[in-house]
Write a structure and sequence with these properties.
The structure holds two protein chains of two kinds. By secondary structure, chain A is an alpha+beta fold. Chain A has helices at about 10-15, 55-85, 100-130, 145-165, 170-190, 225-230, 250-260; strands spanning about 30, 135-140, 215, 235-240, 260-265, 295-300, 310, 315-320, 325-330, 335, 345, 350, 355-360. A five-stranded antiparallel sheet of chain A has the order 3-4-5-6-11. Chain A has a four-stranded antiparallel sheet with strand order 7-8-9-10, with no helix packed on it. The chains are: A alpha+beta, B mainly alpha. Chain A: It is found in: Cell membrane.
């Protein structure tokens, strides 16, 4: 705190006054003029209501009306813009064209904005220039009721409750409560058929021994060379199935479980994790499940299920773009960073007689987000 | 008022018609005279209300064409680039709204922008209520209703975002399902029942649609109506000032001034939302394409209000995961996915009661606190904002990483540190700032304000003149509420040296400790009389009395 900056009229100060200078009690020599401060003390009470001068009110009326006219014209503009672009006309600019749709959106939205703004601005000018400004005081309601009111209520309530016999007749009371219980449970029971119980369905996919693979989004079988020659070193693939009624070949539900990443990894880059067993009761190692350096992992992240679609060839890292779980493709898809709980499940692969890549069975673990029963037998 | 014009005949007719049936003249007048305190921060809740109305109106418009169906069809609508692409009917009908319905694109964008602004204004409104202590008795129940509205609004928004079945929205549902699956024991059952089978199945859009257009809006509407009725009954809080007490509210009457101002503000809110929708594109689903569970783009971002959860999911490490036999406990999903939201809502809901327990303050408060006068509460609020903000930023760490060329994993580590250190630092700094402001208030009270007038004294010295503050300011400063707690008033030992049994129990000890923490740092205004400081003696007109 700067207590003594401009505090020099104490007795001590007076004593230290330099000889020849004026005393402190003398008038001020010069003073800067302050900026005028315009502040109003406290509420503008209704009693001090002053109407705005007629001149201001008249000006306010004009400005507000101008805004309302602008709003009116914009409203008309909105209606015109609506009919300016037909929805789906051949040979004419129609909103089916994204560019035209954009213009239509800007015109409709722009005129609507102006119309709304005009009304808002006009009303504000109205309130500020024409209406008198004042504030009034009003009491808050006393919230707790008076004691006699409470007492009277409580007396009435208990008297009536006794009259009803609800407290005095336990048999009736208890059977009534019992009667409500099954009905209370009914709505929950009724929800039972919203879906099947999980059972084992979450642990199985459409992959079977010998099933060929489609490049995701096509109906073209994959060969080992396709993976080797791929510029990104990674291909997304789905089981080569053609379910009727699904243009993709299979339902989204099946795709969500079955989609795989095929990655080619140079021989010398495999890491020790590949020599471990794929699961406890299997003889195969992760390496046994590869084919000529090509390894297949589930593409669905074991964290919360986004497709782990990014692959960095030099480090063999698979990255999920949602929450950045990172898996090492050269080391049995072990989690090297991020929130995922477990590696991406691996799919055993090989080639068939005609040289197409095929699955050699199902995944070693359930694919998709990790769930309670995933490791259960 | 010189003379009042007679009500027109038609109006009197209607008025009498209603009054004959409902006896409303007295109630009607009382409500038209209802007083609304004037302060800009009271308009935040209004924005939320108005955007909710806009949401209802535009939402009804969208339902006229939207088909909540996951049946896979091949698109043959007007948008050429997706013709021949297989997609769900939901996505195709959204494209229809965008490219075959005039004004459909605009309405959809207004709906989306209004949703973002709805949640944003809810949050800012809630912060205003928190920092000014407007949640205190008698308004705790309305605070709880507000928290419920906030949580429902987030869920409502998330479900709405999911409906078009475009790529990012489907991924949002996928993440939701992934979080659900992590719930111990029942996760897979919940997911199966909600989705009607495995992800994505063919039911989820239909079900989310029902929740989004019927159940949750009905709950929201009910809660919002209740929120308003309570507010109307209890009246607004008000900021301290002359004439404003816990017994008297001062402000503008509902009719005419407030009604016209609020009406105008509705149109302003609508104008801003319409303007954004006209010129700032949001959620261009035609560029994202239909959802497939096998594809993704990088740089995906949820709507802003889900960002904190997304960020929490990103930065929480998997090192705390463990298993019981074959059963995993997925801490890295459960804590950020469910815990973050749970913590947010439980903390918000519980705070009024925790504060009341700490201070033992059972009085009704109608005059709002100035945030500086409740330093611990304000500090906690800022800590909460920082925690939320860090998680929110972490939700776009990939974009930050790319924009600022920082290593992606490094951003994760930075956020892990910040989410702990940030709130602590924020609390300490905020509390100090509050105390500093209190000290300045005391200065102002004692010495008046710095007038900006420079005087040269005969001694040659220059001084700045302090002037008396306005009565309003003095009133506000003099009436600074003291922060006390009843827990500290009870002695630890009575006069015979016997320990107070309440204070000895763990709960009593905790309460005393918290009360000490809550009240210890506070600038006392006791004994400070207005304008008693000696600075005033130099003011040109204020030479009243010497020492």
């Amino acid at each position: 705190m700067t207590e003594n900056n401009n505090d020099n009229n104490t007795a001590d100060d007076a004593n230290e006054r330099v000889v020849g200078t004026p005393t402190d009690t003398a008038d001020v020599v010069s003073e800067a003029t302050p900026e005028p401060r315009d502040d109003h003390n406290g509420p503008y009470l209704a009693s001090e209501t002053h109407k705005h001068p007629e001149e201001q009110q008249r000006r306010g009326e004009k400005i507000a009306s101008l805004w309302f006219v602008i709003a009116f014209l914009s409203g008309i503009g909105f209606l015109v813009s609506y009919f300016l672009f037909p929805p789906n006309a051949a040979g004419e600019p129609a909103i089916g064209d994204p560019q035209i749709s954009q213009y239509s959106n800007m015109l409709l939205g722009g005129t609507l904005t102006l119309a709304m703004f005009g009304i808002g601005a006009g009303m504000t000018v109205w309130a500020r220039n024409i209406m008198p400004h004042y504030e009034v005081a009003s009491p808050y309601d006393e919230l707790p009721s008076k004691d006699e009111e409470k007492g009277s209520f409580s007396e009435f309530f208990m008297k009536s409750a006794d009259e009803s016999g609800f407290t005095k007749r336990p048999l009736m009371r208890r059977t009534l409560i019992a009667a409500m219980l099954p009905l209370g449970i009914a709505p929950i029971v009724l929800l039972r058929d919203t879906g099947p119980v999980p059972g084992d369905r979450m642990k199985e996919t459409r992959w079977t021994d010998g099933m060929r693979m489609y490049v995701e989004g096509t109906h073209r079988y994959l060969r080992a060379e396709d993976v080797e020659n791929d510029p990104y070193g990674m291909i997304s693939a789905l089981p080569a199935l053609d379910d009727e009624g699904y243009p993709h070949g299979m339902s989204l539900t099946d795709q969500a479980k079955s989609v795989i990443l095929l990655i080619k990894i140079p021989e010398e880059d495999w890491e020790s994790g590949m020599n471990e067993k794929v699961s406890e009761d299997s003889e195969d190692t992760h390496l046994n499940w590869t084919h000529q350096g090509i390894v297949a992992y589930s593409k669905i992240c074991t964290h919360v299920g986004c497709p782990a679609a990014l692959y960095e060839r030099t480090t063999h890292r698979i990255l999920c773009p949602c929450h950045q779980s990172t898996f090492d493709a050269a080391n049995a898809a072990e989690v090297v960073f991020g929130p995922a709980h477990r590696p991406l499940p691996q799919l055993p692969i090989g080639v068939d007689d005609e040289g197409y890549l095929v699955a050699r069975g199902d995944f070693n673990e359930p694919t998709g987000p990790t769930f309670w029963e995933y490791a259960e037998d | 008022m010189s003379k009042t014009t007679q009500a027109p005949k038609a109006l009197r007719g209607v008025g009498n018609f209603i009054d004959d049936r409902f006896h409303l003249a007295k109630t009607g007048e009382k409500n038209l005279r209802k007083v609304f305190p004037n302060h800009w921060s009271f308009m935040l809740g209004e924005i939320a209300l108005y955007s909710f109305i806009i949401l209802l109106v535009t939402g009804v418009f969208l339902t006229l064409w939207f088909k909540p169906s996951m049946v896979e069809i091949v698109y043959d609508g007007s948008y050429e680039r997706l013709q021949g692409v297989p997609m769900s009917e939901a996505f195709a009908s959204t494209l229809h709204i965008d490219f075959d319905v005039r004004g459909g694109f605009l309405m959809r964008q207004i709906h989306h922008w209004a949703a973002l602004i709805f949640v944003a204004s809810l949050v800012v409104h809630m912060l205003r209520v928190f920092f000014t202590g407007a949640f205190r008795k008698p308004r705790e129940i309305n605070w709880l209703i507000g928290v419920a509205i906030f949580s429902l609004a987030m869920i409502e928004g998330l479900f709405g975002y999911s409906l078009p079945d475009d790529l990012p929205s489907g991924m949002g549902v996928r993440i939701l399902q992934g979080v659900m699956l992590a719930i111990p024991l029942v996760g897979s059952y919940i997911s199966m029942f909600l989705f009607g089978g495995e992800f994505p199945g063919e039911d989820i859009i239909t079900r989310l649609y029902m929740l989004h257009v019927l159940l949750i809006p009905a709950l929201l509407l009910g809660l919002i109506v209740a929120h308003f009725m309570i507010l109307w009954h209890q009246k607004h809080t008000q900021y301290p000032g002359q004439g404003r007490t816990d017994k008297t509210v001062v402000g503008t009457p509902m009719f005419p001034a407030f009604a016209v101002k609020a009406g105008g503000f509705f149109f302003f809110t609508f104008a801003v939302i319409a303007g954004l929708s006209a010129f700032v594109q949001i959620n261009p689903i035609h560029l994202f394409g239909p959802f497939t569970p096998t594809s993704i783009t990088s740089g995906l971002q949820p709507d802003w209000y889900m960002g904190f959860m997304e960020g929490a999911l990103r930065i929480f490490p998997n090192t705390l995961d463990f298993s019981i036999g074959p059963y995993p406990i997925l801490v890295a999903v459960l804590v950020p996915g469910l815990g973050s939201m749970g913590l947010l809502f439980v903390a918000l809901g519980a705070w009024p009661f925790i504060e009341q327990w700490i201070t033992g303050d059972k009085r009704a408060h109608n005059v709002a606190d100035r945030p500086r006068n409740a330093p611990v509460r304000t500090g906690l609020g800022v800590a909460g904002i920082i925690c939320y903000g860090v998680l929110w930023l972490a939700g776009s760490n990939d974009i930050l990483s790319e924009t600022f060329s920082i290593d992606l994993y490094l951003t994760t580590y930075i956020f892990r540190v910040l989410v702990i250190a940030g709130p602590i630092a924020g609390f300490i700094v905020t509390k100090r700032i509050c105390l500093g402001l209190q000290r300045r208030d005391r200065e102002t009270l004692e010495h008046g304000y710095e007038s900006g007038i420079i005087q040269q004294l005969p001694s040659g010295e220059f001084i700045e003149v302090h002037k008396e503050s306005s009565d309003e300011t003095t009133h506000v400063l003099e009436n600074k509420p003291a922060i006390t707690s009843t827990a500290l008033e009870e002695d630890e030992t009575d006069d015979r040296g016997v320990e107070n049994p309440e204070a000895r129990k763990p709960k009593g000890k905790l309460r005393r400790a918290l009360a000490h923490w809550y009240t210890k740092d506070n600038v006392s205004f006791e004994g400070v009389a207005a304008h008693s400081g000696h600075h005033l003696h130099h003011s040109a007109d204020g030479d009243e009395g010497a020492h």
